[in-house]
Design a protein that fits this description.
The chain is of the alpha+beta class. It contains nine helices and eleven strands. Helix 7 crosses helix 8.
Amino acid sequence: MDVLKQMQKLALFQGVPAKKLKTLSERALYRTCKAGEMFIGETDPAHAFYVVITGQVKLYKISAEGKEQTLNLLGPGEPFGMCTAFAIESFPANVMALEESGILLIPGQVMESIAMNEPRLLVNIIQILSDRLKESMTLIESLALKEIPQRIASFLIHALKGKDGQGMNQLELTVTQRELAKILGATPETLSRALRKMSNAGVLAVDGRSIRILDREALGELAEGD
């Protein structure tokens, strides 16, 4: 794989001078993971910066009682491990491939050295961290204050907006309903019942991973708790 060519396509490295990008590419490593394979375990030593090149991975935590909460789903072009690249030595979450995935690894010291002298890279990283913080706050609010139907409605509206789907009424989930339940902090059975209730109410229609919104106004009201 041509690592430099892949890096040139990523929003993370847009505006970074070619010479510095070449230095990063020469020190970067490329790893592949099979579906279901753990890439990094929580508390594993890690001092690197990672970028998903192909496939999809999830970042998640497991409670002392064994309950799993998905924190992020990341696809091609999306980085993770920014805190371990610059600050801490252990990874704060588990990372698992949901499908066969290719991941770029850049040693933390190399990334830090370039970033300290390249404002454009730092600005790109700050922008990504700002977006992630906003997503995390939305997740915390949803888990703490909303019931399952509200969480589903909020997730669907957010997902459609994220895909520039303001006028779209169709969403193809990139994960199974079991994985979606972990994102929403629900059991698969509870999620299934809530989707069935929303379907019976004429709000949406579900066919496997395909969800079609039948009543956007009702979905919006549900997301707001009305």
